[in-house]
Amino acid sequence: MYQIDYLLTEGISAASGEILTHTARLYAGAKVVDMIDGYDEAGIFRFELLIDWGWFYFLTKPLFFGLDYVFGIVGNFGIAILIITVFIKLAFFPLANRSYEAMSKMKKLQPVMEKLREQYPDDKMKQQQEIMALYKKEKVNPLAGCLPVIIQIPVFFSLYKVLFVTIEMRHAPFFGWIHDLSAADPTTLFNLFGVIPWDPPSFLMVGIWPLLMGITMFVQQRMNPAPSDPTQQMIFTWMPLFFIFILASFPAGLVIYWAWNNLLSVLQQGVIMRKQGVAIELFSNMGFEKIFKRPAAKD
Questions:
Q1: CA-CA distance, 22 to 204, in Å (whole number)?
Q2: What does the pLDDT read at residue 22?
Q3: How many domains are contained in the chain?
């Protein structure tokens, strides 16, 4: 079913017996960006808005042109996404560095903060006052860890729009089982990625790339200082699993971007932690230390 609506911007008044003519143009075709922009440049005012670039128009369209340019060199939109992500990381490298340095300092202060909690076990208000005074003394911003996520959100939505509204990204393959970057990962954990001959319902379609994204998100979380509040700790612990199911239905290109961005962030944060002299205790933060710890020898 197709529906066409037409709105005449200004009314036309015709006198008795007068014949008036009004000419209108109709475009029926694929929304190829270069073609649409060509009509706009030819004098059809704002015809480029035929493609809905979204609220982040000023980011979305340049991001598409960047992806399209790199695609022209490498011949694969998936590889183009990986390369553009590296450029984005380089552009925001100084801001992310300051954020990871602040988190490294916070991790150094963890033993001192634990002593303050032990010192005032029944006075939460006093705990918070002493911890905030410690942050002020050491010149640490506890909100600095949110900066990489805040930076990532506009890029995430821009790439989401690019994958959805541009025909150039439609049916663009990556490698292996990803034959369409604008569609969700077709594999699922719940039939062992095709080993079991069963088609799970849509909410159980959790593919390999969403799982990889969740693992990288989990690792990145464990490199950061743990929240002091037990409720916050529980929320952060379950957040990767929540995002796995949320992003499982999103375009594969978007999930690949998020997983690759997380991996680059983990590498960057690891280098900074080494420079700051902060131990990278992934296994202990994941709870593996308790599992593999040898029991104390008996007398």
A1: 55
A2: 78
A3: 1
Is position 43 within any domain? no
Q: CA-to-CA distance for 190 and 62, rounded, in angstroms?
A: 38
- Judged against a pLDDT cut of 50, whether residue 294 lies above it is answered with no
Domain contains 40? no
pLDDT top residue among 96 and 142: 96
45 domain-assigned: no
Query: pLDDT at position 120, please?
Result: 76
Structure tokens at 120: 């005032």
Query: Which structural domain, as residue segments, surrounds residue 141?
Result: 57-292
Helix/strand/coil percent split, the chain, to 5? 60, 0, 40
Domain presence at residue 39: no
Most confident of 45-49, 103-107, 135-139: 45-49
d(CA 54, CA 208): 29
Nearest to 218, CA basis, from 184, 259, 271? 259
